[in-house]
Amino acid sequence: MSRELVNEICAAQPGAEWSDPWGGGHDCWKVGGKTFAVTGAVGTHVSVKTDSVETAAFLIETGAAERAPYLHASWVALPLDAAPDELAHRIRHSYRIVRAGLTRAAQAALPPL
């Protein structure tokens, strides 16, 4: 999977917004102002949020992901060459987790799922 395809999946999420908050070519995808996916400037992995530290640890232990640098332990870094359906699933799941954590007002301001 390429960086372009990751960006397509992220852009397809309702209310998703792209930014490069650190400069230098990062792809940071947010919903309601909160990050749900990040691809670094070098771009070999996409970092996504999981539902728990335990899920992240499981994905890391099984070799499906790596620890996402600079982020909470519930985040993992998936290689861009991972199976496209798994990567799409993890990106969409991260989006839903982050969206569900927004205030009711912020959720109501977003397009429906």
Search tags:
single chain, 113 residues, alpha+beta, Aspartate Aminotransferase, domain 1, six-stranded antiparallel sheet, 4 helices, 35% helix, globular
How is this structure best described in words?
InterPro entries: YjbR-like_sf, YjbR/MT2646/Rv2570-like. Keywords: DNA-binding. GO terms for molecular function: DNA binding. Pfam families: YjbR. It is a single chain. By secondary structure, this protein is α+β, with helices and mostly antiparallel strands. Helices cover 35% and strands 24% of the residues. The protein has four helices and six strands. A six-stranded antiparallel β-sheet has the order 1-2-3-4-6-5. Strand 3 (34-39) and strand 4 (45-49) form a beta hairpin. The mean pLDDT is 95.
Topology of this structure?
Layout: H1 3-11, E1 16-19, E2 27-31, E3 34-39, E4 45-49, H2 53-61, E5 66-67, E6 75-79, H3 84-100, H4 104-108
Antiparallel strand pairs: 1-2, 2-3, 3-4, 4-6, 5-6
Largest sheet: 6 strands, antiparallel
Total domain modules: 1
Q: CATH class, anyone?
A: Alpha Beta
Specify the helix fraction band.
25-40%
Order of helices and strands: HEEEEHEEHH
Poorly predicted sequence stretches spanning 5 or more consecutive residues: none
Task: Please summarize what this structure is.
The protein is an alpha+beta fold and 113 residues long.
